[in-house]
Amino acid sequence: MISGIGIDIIEISRIEHSIAQYGDIFLKKLFTENEILYCKSKQFPTQHFAARFAAKEAFSKAVSTGWSGEFEWKNVEVKNDPAGKPDFILYGKTAETLQGYSIFLSMSHSDTSVIAFVVIEKQS
User: Fold this and answer.
1) Is the dihedral of CA 23, 28, 34, 39 positive or negative?
2) Of all helices (H) and strands (E), which one includes residue 7?
3) Cα distance between residue 122 and residue 76, in whole Å
4) Separation CA 86–CA 116 (nearest Å)
5) What pLDDT, on the 0 to 100 scale, is given for residue 68?
6) Which of 8, 44, 70, 77 could disulfide-link to 89, CB 3.0 to 4.6 Å?
C-alpha cells in the first residue's frame, strides 16, 4: 500500500547560486560526504547536487514532514547503483522509522531544471 508520494522540481541555477554564495557550508549542511564526492567527480557537478536536493525535497514531502519534524538532510543519501539507477540510503531515526517500507526514486533533468519523484510503500 502506498503511504506517501512526493515530487520536487528545482532550477539548477538556484543550487549554483547557493554553492557560489555559501560554498562548503551549504554543501556540508545538505549532503553527505559520499554525495559531495560523487557530485564533484562529475563534469557538471551542480546538476548532480540539484538532483540530490530535489530528491531529498521529494522524500521529505513523501514522508509528510517537509523540513520540519524529524527530517534531517544528511539522514537521506542518494546513491546510484552500477547501472545508474538512483536509490536512497537512510540513516539514523529516518532509517528506523521507515523499516518495513520500500522507497522508489525517479529523477530527470533538462539543461536548466531537475525533477525528482518519490513513492513510499508499506511492505506487506
Assistant:
1) negative
2) strand 2-11
3) 18
4) 10
5) 58
6) 77
Please indicate whether residue 123 or residue 89 has the higher confidence score (pLDDT).
89
Task: Give the Cβ contact number of residue 41 at 10 Å.
Answer: 9
- 2-122: CATH topology: Ribosomal Protein L22; Chain A (3.90.470)
Q: pLDDT digit string (tens) for 54-69?
A: 999 999 999 986 555 6
Q: Are 119 and 4 in contact (CB under 8 A)?
A: yes
pLDDT digits (tens, 9 = 90+) for 102-113: 999 999 999 999
Helix (H) or strand (E) holding 115: strand 113-122
Q: What is the helix (H) or strand (E) element at residue 122, kind and residue range?
A: strand 113-122
Q: Which residues are catalytic?
A: 61, 109
